[in-house]
Amino acid sequence: MFTLKKIAQYAVLTGATALFGMTSAQAALPIQHWTLANGARIYLVATNALPIVDVQVDFDAGSRRDPAAQAGLASTTSAMVEKGVRAGRNGEPALDQNALGEAWADLGASFDVSAGTDRTSYSLRSLSDPALLNKAVTLASREIGEPAFPDDVWQRERERINAAIKEANTKPATVAGRAFAQAVYGVHPYGQEVTEETLARIDTAGMRQRYEQLIVPCRAKLSIVGAVTRAEAETLATALLSRLPATQAGQGCAPLPAIAPVAALTAANDERIPFDSAQAHVFIGQPGYPRKDPDHFALTLGNYVLGGGGFVSRLTNEVREKRGLTYSIYSGFAPGLEAGAFRIGFQTRPDQAEDAVKMSREVLARFVAEGPTASELKAAKDNVIGGFPLLLDSNRKLIGNVANIAWHDLPLDYLDTWTARMNAVTAADIKAAFQRKLQPERMVTVVVGGKDAKAAKAAAKAP
Q1: Of 24, 181, 302, 342, which shows the fewest CB atoms inside 10 Å?
Q2: For residues 184 and 341, is the Cβ–Cβ distance under 8 A?
Q3: Which of 287, 358, 286 lies closest to 319, judged by CA?
């Protein structure tokens, strides 16, 4: 008998090109798109390569929708969805967390819920055999539409999360990450973080209210990849959302409040936070760009050269290889619906922190001013474009790409044109894009560990 585990092993053994019948020169599988009567938008890639169906359902219900006083509401609500379902509208019995786990194990399927900055996501994976798939969809629809939010379970979960927060607060990485986010984002929701105080204000009543406001069919984007036809996909999608309050396309789905853009920094901000640690933790950065920005391809390639390419990046070469100031260093953008942060990050000996910060800033400023060399650009394209087939070599990876297209309203032929668009980027394009997005003289710098804050700031300002 086939199981999801055996099929996954088969996919690894047969390889990426066997799985989807593609090579790097061939187009990706076509994406079908339509809207259900309830307003939900469907994105389907039908492929019979394996008898598996993957579904991801996304809602605009990430942490950016959390009230500041209840930061963490999105993540805790999503976690509680999997703690049990109430009695079903069709007479099904209530199920606690253990019963749900046993039910999914019996089906050989999986279901997960998570909340990120922008969205709350429900992920279902099942064999495509109709008898199993139908049962999996029914069970998933109960978790999506009939979560119990048991108060006794939440009390225990809150204590567990509180303990985790207290433990995390003893680590320099947590202190550095929090300070960096607050300095980069200010009062924007992207900078909110769950604390013991905000957690204390979260209760199951608030979870239910949030659910009623945000988790409704007309706000759903469903991405489906696997061995189903369009008709089967429509039936599946309709069933998954069937236990949520009914809505019709264009009705009962007023626009959610707009989220203000992330404000640009007006000046540099250096924070030195004393911490008794063997390594100093360092972040340098500022707001970056939203995912739909047309500079995305140029910024992706440019960042590979700057600090995203591991041992072949400029930051690694200058800060690690030539000067031995850190074991590893990276840079990266985190684009979302709004401008996620650009960040350079590394750890170093506390006595080397100021030298490492200075050199990192110099490398960044030089790259923004000059852009990549021809040889750097060629190497970046060879690596990034050459790795493109690996982004599509399994159902799980393909569903992530399709969901990304759906969430950011990217063109349906995005995967088909990806290689050509990446290949068309020039060194001048990268230079111009980085100069539009980054201002090295207005960066946030956070150093946690090492010298006391006053001495460190004086050292940073010294010529």
Answers
A1: 24
A2: yes
A3: 358
Q: Is 355 exposed, middle or buried (0-12, 13-18, 19+ CB in 10 A)?
A: middle
| pLDDT above 60 (res 14) | no
Rounded to whole angstroms, the Cα distance separating 451 from 158 reads: 36
What are the helix and strand counts (H, E) for the chain? 18, 13
Q: Output the six-digit token pair for 201.
A: 């204000």
Helix axes 427-437, 353-370, angle to 10 degrees: 120
* Pair of tokens at residue 421: 């668009």
Look at residue 236 and give its three-state secondary structure: helix
Tokens at 45, concatenated? 């890639």
How far apart are alpha carbons 409 and 403 in whole angstroms?
10
Q: Which structure tokens are listed for 342?
A: 């650009």
Phi-psi domain of 409 (left: phi exceeds 0; alpha: psi -120 through 50; beta: other): left
Give the lowest-confidence range in 39-43, 303-307, 414-418, 452-456: 452-456
Q: Which amino acid is at 139?
A: L
The DSSP bridge partners found for residue 344 are 284, 331
CB 304 within 8 A of CB 318: no
pLDDT at 2 over 60: no
> How many C-beta atoms lie closer than 10 Å to residue 300's C-beta?
19
What is the chain's alpha carbon radius of gyration, rounded to the nearest angstrom? 24
Cα 287 to Cα 232: distance, rounded to the nearest angstrom: 42
| Strand-pair category, 120-127 with 52-59 | antiparallel
Q: Please determine, for residue 446, whether its predicted confidence score (pLDDT) is greater than 60.
A: yes
Give the β-pairing of 32-35 and 41-46.
antiparallel
Which two three-digit tokens encode residue 458? 């004086």
Which of helix, strand or coil describes residue 59? strand
Please give the single-letter amino acid code of residue 207: M
Judge whether residue 283 has pLDDT over 60. Answer: yes
459 falls in which pLDDT band (50, 70, 90)? low
Q: How far apart are the first and last CA of the chain?
A: 71
What does the alpha-carbon distance between residue 165 and residue 77 come to, in Å, rounded to a whole number?
17
Using one digit for the tens of pLDDT, what is the confidence trace for 377-394? 999 999 999 999 998 888
29: which DSSP letter? P
The pLDDT tens digits of the residues spanning 198-237 come to 999 999 999 999 999 999 999 999 999 999 999 999 999 9
DSSP state letter for 191 = G
- Cβ neighbors of 334 (< 8 A, separation 6 or more) are 288, 340, 341, 342, 343
